Amino acid sequence: MFSVALSVASCLRAGTEVHVAWVVSSDNLPGLAVGDSVALTPGGGRMGALGGGILDSHLAELAVSGIGRVVDVTLSEVDALIAGLTGPASARIAVVPASSLPERTWGLLLNREALAISATVAEGRLSDIEVHTLSDAPPDEIAESLAGATGSIESTDRLVSAFVPVTRLAISGGGPNARALEDAARLLGWQVDRSTEPDTAIGLMATLSPLDAAVIMGHDVEASSRVLAAALESSAGYIGALGSLRMQQNRADWLAYRGITDLDRIDGPAGVNINASTPSEIAVSVLASAIATLNRGA
Questions:
Q1: DSSP per-residue letters across 53-95
Q2: pLDDT value at 138 more than 90
Q3: Helices (H), strands (E): how many in the chain?
Q4: How far apart are CA 185 and CA 284, in angstroms?
Q5: Phi, psi (5° rounding) for residue 208?
Q6: pTM, full prediction
Q7: Are the beta carbons of 70 and 156 closer than 8 angstroms?
């Protein structure tokens, strides 16, 4: 839900009808995680994807104007075969008009705050939709769901779906170090976005919150410095810059020439000093530093 919040908020401001759909549960769909979300607009418009696009052909029929509901989607044998699955596969999807959620929902999601959406279920339809946060003193069922990970609790007449943010790592750069860092971060359960294109990486930096981390690498001073400037403008809780001391100074000079002199948030050269030399060791070093910094911030 966090990944589509900005798009949904923009649609609502523009007066565009938009629905949000999320995964309540799934069976035999390894690429589909509970809580994965997508935004749907009339005419088949879609922002985001569920399970890497496995369910794309089923999404258009889910959004019914003004109606919230929870539906079961089953892949045909052909669709399952194309997706490389063995045996039947299905998912339970909740979909609601974005306008039926309280206006504050999108601000909470953009700020990466844990929240729960609760609704009454009757014959597959969702009504009386409410949003709760930890500070709302919600009912025990909701408080319990918010205290853990993203997931849903469903009974015969009630659905509670909790959305709890995980740390995002935005990596700017390529090569063995970037790949090792991406692999290691995923082992921590972090969400990882990596780009070798400076303009795309700058866009990634703009979406980071205090829960998140950014790591910038690369041998091009101007390109990496542009991304570093974007990271400093963001709310990222950790900013790491890989490279030699000379590269760090070159970037600092580039930033200073453009009026950016407060570099206290930058960990550079990034990482805990463990005399790391291989890509895997460098990844461990950088992530250790990021974890320590983020935990201090929390």
A1: GTTHHHHTTT-BTTBEEEEEEE--HHHHHHTT-SS--EEEEEE
A2: no
A3: 10, 14
A4: 9
A5: -80, 145
A6: 0.71
A7: no
Please state the φ and ψ torsions of residue 32, each to the nearest 5 degrees.
-115, 120
Say how far apart CA 166 and CA 189 lie, in whole Å. 8
Contact 171, 224 (CB under 8 A): no
Residues 6 or more apart in contact with residue 109 via CB below 8 angstroms: 1, 2, 5, 115, 163
Q: Could you give the C-alpha distances from 10 to 4, 47, 208, in angstroms and in order?
A: 10, 12, 18
Q: Which domains does the chain have, with CATH numbers?
A: 2-114+121-130 (no CATH), 168-297 (3.40.50.720)
Amino acid identity, residue 248? Q
Q: Give residue-wise pLDDT tens across range 207-263.
A: 888 989 999 999 999 999 999 999 999 989 999 999 999 999 999 999 999 999 999
Distance (Å, whole) CA 5 – CA 37: 10
- Record the tokens describing residue 225, joined without a space: 């410095």
